[in-house]
Amino acid sequence: MLRPKAQLQSVxxxxxxxxxxxxxxxxxxxxxxxxxxYKTYGEPPVGMxxxxxxxxxxxxxxxxVSNATPSRVRYWCDKLGIWGFGPAGKPWFGFRAxxxxxxxxxxEVAVVGDxxxxxxxxxxxxxxxxxxxxxxxxxxxxxxxxxxxxxxLVLGR
Length: 157
Description:
single chain, 157 residues, alpha/beta, Rossmann fold, 6 helices, 6 strands
């Protein structure tokens, strides 16, 4: 339950071809430290909008599923040109609701995030294809820094 099916440095490594080879038609994306650095506002990281555009052009849905505040999620959904919701109640509730909203089967959906105990666990619980990415920045809440130590044990680092 705590092991991702794939590990990548960045979400932008998920190409339409890579996703389609695995039968994936949508990506459920974490926000903080997956798409944008933790607690940041402003412009998206370089290449992020282009990456989302390539997914859209290939017919792959992208949806934000975050435990961030509703105003932060709305801000980034507008900036990134995707839809989503938060707080999502990960790991237990958000992914199931998102998959139902997309009207897809869990095995057609990738859950992508930087945390094992929310993103990977939640994605595995619903039967999605889980992808763990490296966090974009070291700045995080104290709680998350402690969880990172547990994640290192799970991953054998």
